[in-house]
Amino acid sequence: MLDSKADQRSTNPTLTSVVSQRKIDDFRRDGAVCVRGLFSPDEIERCRAGIAKNMAAPSHRAIVASQPDDPGYFIEDFCNWQRIDEYRELIFRSHAAETAGALMGSSTVRLYHDHLLVKEPNTRQKTPWHQDQPYYNLDGRQNCSMWAPMDPVGRASTLEFVAGTHNGPWLMPRTFMTSEAKWFPEGSLADLPDIEADRGVFDIIGWELEPGDAVFFHMLTLHAAGGVGSGRRRVLSVRFLGDDIRHAPRRWKTSPDFPGLADELPAGAPFDHPSFPILWRRPERI
Length: 286
Prior knowledge:
The chain is an alpha+beta fold. It has helices spanning 15-18, 21-30, 41-56, 85-93, 96-104, 261-264; strands at residues 32-35, 63-64, 74-78, 108-119, 127-130, 138-139, 143-149, 159-162, 204-206, 214-217, 223-225, 233-241, 246-247, 278-281. The chain has a single domain, classed as Sandwich (Jelly Rolls). The radius of gyration is 18 Å and the shape is globular.
């Protein structure tokens, strides 16, 4: 999908220029949009410094998501905003939450969690097609994930989406490396179609990206990503919650897990909890 002149990068974006009504309409139709120039060069440099801290001291949630024989290396980590100042600054002070609020049509935006994804040069491991919401402990439609690269991302390595799949149904979540159904019981949800077998049948969208750009997508939108070539691909992803999101405790470990949360937040309750702070509120009209 090519970018029009209306989508060209801005070095000093405001909400009006970053999120037009067209972007909102595209998000609601396709379940994913690209927002150019959302972050300034200074914000990118700060976030890169935070990623370096994270890589030097991964949390207990960190996982290696590539096979031992992969010539590269793919690592993920979760929920580090409280210990890495640079993440917290980007999440709380940038235009990201405001952008998510406009796309979701929500009067408030809460933080769900941050997610680091780093593919080192020559990583073969692909991120398979999946939806995010079935892995989570939440229900509701007003949700949004941001995927912000800190390095240039070519079309072959970018995040891709099947447009319109945010309208459902929920599909079986599986482990990425062994394809096990460790969340919902086997057979309780339909399996994903084999998208790679005939890509032309599906409306697949995706964008080449530069540092400062970000992709926003609904947690039910089917998405995937390829491996990387000679370049490194550092990404900070942030999940946002809107007005209608409610806690949905699971009998199994979610990804990420929030130990003890079910004892503090009843099923069906809003995410009104210190672990999920409000990042943005829509200004009241006078």
